[in-house]
Structures
1.
Amino acid sequence: MIIRIESESDIPIYLQISNQIIEGIARGYIKAGQTLPSVRSFAADLGVNMHTVNKSYHHLEQKGIIQIVPKSGAVITSPQNFNESTINKLKDEYKHLIAESLVIGMPTTQIKELVAALLEEFKKSNGQLK
Amino acid sequence: MIIRIESESDIPIYLQISNQIIEGIARGYIKAGQTLPSVRSFAADLGVNMHTVNKSYHHLEQKGIIQIVPKSGAVITSPQNFNESTINKLKDEYKHLIAESLVIGMPTTQIKELVAALLEEFKKSNGQLK
DNA sequence: AAATCTGTTCTATTTTGTATAGAACAAAAA
DNA sequence: TTTTTGTTCTATACAAAATAGAACAGATTT
């Protein structure tokens, strides 16, 4: 799995890492039970600081996406027992994203089509999706 | 239109204001051609600094959602001629949001239903939606 | 015409977030 | 036993966010 860091981006590096890991899981490049690289080796690969990768991992753990085993590694968790607040935050993000789409003039049909197309794209990469 | 600021939130105040204005437009509470409150009066109402509201307005102007007329006011623009980068950023946000939803185990049907339900909710508030 | 209100611009300070750096610790793995 | 692991600590540097006060010039209201 390839991760690209854009230093010019307005998105913090630790979030760029988190987001691309999430996409990698959704696409099936990494699967539940597998382990992420150590913070030191990953940082060396990406050319960033160890603490930046560490922050990214803890960000993913807070979302319930990975589990950090002290002195061992970061393991992708199975999609289960995720907390309510994570789901509510996601729903709020959907609400705001749809609101903005409507405001800039996207028709409802186009929004539905965009979502359906993206879901198809992920399904294409990851056959195990429900 | 009522706007609530949560000081505990990790979302910056100026973004909370922007987001709720966008939702207000999507819901039809404010319509194209109408004017937003002055930065000073709005700031007084919300209990925040004038410059924070000013930042929010300029953020909305950059998105093409309002037009700031110097020495006059901030006017809601009609949904037209939006730049490509705004749309591409939106699509990227949809992609990441859907990826995260899939990772925490939401079935594709549930994602589609959530989007459809939110679209219905906005339609219910705003009859003029396409 | 005068007073008020408007967004703008400027300096200034405080707080928080981001990113890097280096060092040390204790436990797990090789 | 040596290496690797995540963790913790101090430290620095920079940027973003939020507040504050003042002043300006144009628009609006009285």
2.
Amino acid sequence: MSPCDTCVVRNRAICAGLDNPEIAALSTMGRRRTVSAGEPLIWEDDDSLLVANVIEGVLKLTTSTADGREQIVGVAYPSDFIGRPFGQTSAASVVALTDARVCVFSRNDFDRFAREHPELEHKLLERTLSELDRTRAWMMLLGRKSAPEKIATFLLDMSDRLADNGCGPHAGPARQFTLPFSRQQVADVLGLTIETVSRQFTKLKSDGVVALPSRRDVEILDRGALQLLAG
Amino acid sequence: MSPCDTCVVRNRAICAGLDNPEIAALSTMGRRRTVSAGEPLIWEDDDSLLVANVIEGVLKLTTSTADGREQIVGVAYPSDFIGRPFGQTSAASVVALTDARVCVFSRNDFDRFAREHPELEHKLLERTLSELDRTRAWMMLLGRKSAPEKIATFLLDMSDRLADNGCGPHAGPARQFTLPFSRQQVADVLGLTIETVSRQFTKLKSDGVVALPSRRDVEILDRGALQLLAG
DNA sequence: GGGAGACCTTGATCGAGATCAAACTCGACC
DNA sequence: GGTCGAGTTTGATCTCGATCAAGGTCTCCC
């Protein structure tokens, strides 16, 4: 397998600020990997000590109870960072929602490299703080919002997240987009059942708030109404 | 107001690894402040740009909806870090649950200082990663656990958190402890109503799983049962 | 383009937890 | 000690979302 050069080039967020010799060093450590939709990102080492960068695609981070209930606790988009440097194994498991390409690093190598490159640690810190903010906002949704509010908030969030996937100028939220989630996965993000999600989608459609041209496609017809519903 | 020297001494987590001149520089930036139970930690600057370290006491981080529903999205114990360096204002508001002492820094000063001291940024990163792990585990609770499971998980979590508040050798989880939360605040942590929390406490008491000598005091009688209930 | 199966929608019913309402407890303060 | 009031418990009822149970639809693959 060749060094994962494209991931360090594409992943501006992680690598910005490193000058060239440092990028070269990071690139020799990373290995590119593809993961098909539905496949887990299996950590190759026995000790489960890997970290990764998303190059392309969307992955979910989930935790489950012993009896099989699942909660999606995070979603990783291109340029996002996956894994848990500097500590015990993260409890979450990672599964690709779409075909994905990632750049994988051994955790030990990555940790050592990060310690030697403060600029990388700084980027990682900013990114982790942002993720924590987002996660806390989601706690509000899970603990206190009703099903209609959850669905509306979810659609607005997806609209924002899927807007700036490309590299162009920030174009604002997307009016139409393709969900990387099945109905069950939407339920697992929102702490609902698949039936409730389906009913809420149907209601939004019949109220003329959204159009649903296909199972995965969403077109927002009345953003104001969604924002009102989102609470 | 004098430089906040005790906070940097006591807060090993933030300051470990900095050699003495650096500690001196940090200590000139921080100002000690006390906050009474129930009082918000009001950010003094107009632009709400402060960060802080907890020296003593417990504080809650909350988000609220427009119509007044509240969710506690984090709890800060001694040595924990509060605030949002390197970015826009965090959405959460901070209120002391007990009388508290904190060490406050101007965000700009702190940011600049952190950028110049990679060891501090590293500590901050480890801490933020741990907090993210904890927050994600809480998402599972909020999204997928039943009221009895939530209460049991909460009590076990409190037992762990309140155990190593002191500086002695790690003594394992506490068998009895004083909750820093009112019933309403427990409800706000767990995404329940106060009535449901009260009923679950009463049930655990009459089942002999816990003793409740006073409103705020808890004694765990049957930890195994709690762990079973926690799911 | 036809069949199979995964995924999704819809309907009927149920129940956990919310809501509404009232009594009780405990500590603070006079 | 008595009173006041916030905080808590307990009870009755209601409701939202879960659960149970069919159908329906899209897509993949031959």
